[in-house]
Amino acid sequence: MAAFDFDLFVLGVGSGGVRAARMSAGYGARVATAEAVHMGGTCVNVGCIPKKLYVYGAHFAADFEDARAYGWDAPIPDIDWATLKRNKDVEIKRLNGIYGGLLDQAGVTHFDGRAVLVDAHTVAIGEKRVTAEKILVATGSKPFVQDIPGKEYLSTSDDAFALETLPRRVLVLGGGYIAVEFAGIFAGLGVETTLAYRGPKLLRGFDEDIRDMMDAAVQHQGIKLSLNTTLNSVQRVASGALSAEFADGSKTEFDFILAATGRTPNSADLGLEALGVAMSDNGAIIVDQDFRTSVPHIYALGDVIDRFQLTPVAIKEAMVFAANAFAGGKQSMNYDLIATAVFCQPNVGVVGLTEKEAQDAGHKTQIFRSKFRPLKHTLTGRNEQSLMKLVVDAESDRVLGIHMIGAEAGEIIQGFAAAMTAGVTKAQLDQTVGIHPTAAEEFVTMREPVAQA
Question: Which residues participate in catalysis according to the annotation?
Answer without folding.
Answer: 436
